[in-house]
Amino acid sequence: MQNEPLLSVKNLTVDLLTAKSALRPVDGVSYAIRQGQCLAIVGESGSGKTVMNFAPLGLMPTGVTTNLSGSVRFEGQELIGLSEPEVRKLRGKSIGFIFQDPMSALNPVRRIGRQIAEMAELHLNMSPRAAEARALDLVKLVGISDPAARLSQYPHELSGGLRQRIVIAIALAGEPKLLIADEPTTALDVTVQAQILRLLKDLQQRLNMAMVLITHDMGVVAGAADNIVVMYAARAAECGPVDKVLVNPRHPYTRGLINAIPRRDDPIGSEFRGLPGVPPTLGAPIQGCAFAPRCEFAVAACTRARPPMVPTADSNVCVACPVVNQGKAAA
Amino acid sequence: MTHAPVLKVENLQTRFKSVQRGKYVHAVDDVSIELYPGEIVGLVGESGCGKSTLGRTIVGLEKASAGRVLLDGVDLSTLSGAALRNSRRALQYVFQDPYSSLNDRQTVGEAIDEALLIDGLRSADERTRRAKELLEQVGLPHTARDRHTRELSGGQRQRVAIARSLAVNPRVLICDEPVSALDLSIRAQVMNLFLRLQKDLGVACLFIAHDLALVRQAASRVYVMYLGKIVEHGPSQELYDHPGHPYSQMLLASVPEVDPRVEKLRSAPLLKGEVPSPTNPPSGCRFRTRCPLAVEDCALRAPASHVLSPDHNAACIFAPDLHGGKRSALIHQAA
Predict the structure, then answer these.
(1) pLDDT tier, A318 (very low <50, low <70, confident <90, very high otherwise)
(2) Quick one: B288 and B157 in the same domain?
(3) Contact between A268 and B192 using a beta-carbon 8 Å cutoff
(4) Are A93 and A99 within 8 A, CB to CB?
(5) B44 with B177, same domain?
(6) Given this model, what pLDDT does residue A217 score?
(7) Which residues, 6+ apart, have CB-to-CB distance to A49 below 8 Å?
(8) In terms of residue numbers, what domain contains B287?
(9) B266 neighbors B245 (Cβ within 8 angstroms)
(10) Which fold does the domain A1-94+177-261 belong to in CATH?
(11) Is pLDDT at A331 greater than 60 in this prediction?
(12) Most buried pick, A25, A273, A281, B169, via CB within 10 A?
């Protein structure tokens, strides 16, 4: 654990400039992830969780100018400012991706086997024959029955769960050190979700990869992740080990999110617990804490300046909330 | 429940022609459900089990191939023209995705106005008054009338969609995953809106969802659907505490826990594989191919429905044992 983290993000800010507007979807976020660990990044839509992971790797829509500042170091190499050909060498090889929708992530007119094999050919310089063999191994690895027959099938012949397994096999084809999974189970059923999460966790441990699990669902975090970053409106609100953050959330937003999940002992027909108000729209920079307008504990200090991420009484957990941190100072 | 059901679905069947010649996809197969005035009823199951098709068939978006839909005791298939339109008005649908169910070019006022015109409100003043009332009912400021639907957030758009369906004074709302496209912090607000509408307006709600925790809290009764059939139904608390069908039991057990201390104790995922094709459903009990308790008999004939307690039925030969805790699909799996 003493070695340098595999991925170290410091004070990352992403600015997006389109023809008409300027947005800042990520504003000064820091986190790190070590080999063999899983980090969950949790946030609602528009919180910046996906952009934060994809922008430094050049995965942004065309027609948008992306300005990055801060530092993203992967295996000691700075990614910000890296040229596109150099980033391309990492993408899909040392860093694998799993996307939310397995249908649009696969090419509908090419056979499964070829789609996996081309990754091995490209990134590991394998011969087509060796790559086909590797594709078969990968399909076995992701737990698909009748693997040889699957290789000659097309994506539309497979169910959602099987497709997502194929997407995982493709992501693993380049032997990545880091796997970035963007909402890997959102498009799937609860039952299939449990299977895919188990598979990801299993592979991550077996292959000693680092994994970033991007999700909006607190439910999938507990079983899979070691650490968690909670994002709100482009900024990190709370981070720390899952065992601590989910059991004893400190930031009012994290508390509200966890509290909003229905529990078995809630009476039938009772009011659902939730957060008041709506998340802010991106665009206008927010002076103080972005969550202050929805926060029941907000004080004047919250709207004055942006609260820094500060270690709490438990030094593993950091929270960006003046009220929580002030309480600690007083104690 | 001594009063009559507002909506009664009898032996409903919806089938689609398959790409395989001469074959049919039995999306909904011999389903009967009842909805009483002012109650929220859950309909749960995995994707592909036919729950959306059932909802769409009830409101007439799909054609039923057999069976009847009775609204206040009147069979909708016997009606036509104006009489059918009038009845249909009482039966409204709330779609999953509020981004595709509203016209981006309309303002909120126009969107609601359209529904009110269909309801036959000729006077513009009257429509303005009613639109205000509807916006208030769904918790939007009346100034929202002049805004374009595209300017609104997902939660606000879903409120507009709900206001539109309420405009015609429906008695039954079929809600197809109405909050699954919304952010977690907004979901509770929209769910509470449904609870309030049920209380204030007495609208009955068929709540189609895959989120079991959400359904348990909102619905008084739940139907569990698997591959086109209702396998179990009962009062929510009773069904969640003492499921009588292995599928319900396993579905309930696969809901992830937020508390890592509980979640880390979980064994391997319970339900293996996925829902088989409805073109060639398994013989006998449709769940048998994934059921850890399946025996030879399950393949031979479809299981009879057992009455486990008042209004709690399950179609499984082991239903009484499962319900009584003498047998479990979960323990069997671990062994």
Answers:
(1) very high
(2) no
(3) no
(4) no
(5) yes
(6) 85
(7) A41, A42, A43, A214, A216, A231
(8) 245-335
(9) no
(10) Rossmann fold (3.40.50)
(11) no
(12) A25
Contact across the interface for A274 and B220, Cβ inside 8 Å = no
Element (H, E) at A32: strand A22-33
- How far off is chain A from B144, nearest CA to CA, in Å? 15
Instruction: Specify the CATH number for the domain of residue B44.
Output: 3.40.50.300
Indicate the average pLDDT of chain A.
Answer: 90
pLDDT at A328 over 60: no
- CA neighbor of B88 nearest in space, from B54, B130, B58: B58
Both structure tokens of A52 = 């934060």
Strand ranges inside A34-149, DSSP E: 38-42, 65-74, 77-78, 95-98
Instruction: Find where tokens 């890296």 sit.
Output: A82
Mean pLDDT of B278-291: 90
Q: In angstroms, what CA-CA distances link A147 with A108, A121, A151, B290, B327?
A: 19, 20, 7, 20, 35
B156 contacts in A (CB within 8 Å)?
A: 278
Average pLDDT score, chain B:
89
Q: Return the top range by mean pLDDT from A203-217, B253-267, B274-288.
A: A203-217
Low-confidence winner among A49-58, A125-134, A302-311, B323-332 (lowest mean pLDDT)? B323-332
- pLDDT tens for A230-242 read 999 999 999 999 9
Same domain assignment for residues B66 and B14: yes
Candidate from A189, A269, A279 with C-beta closest to B46: A189
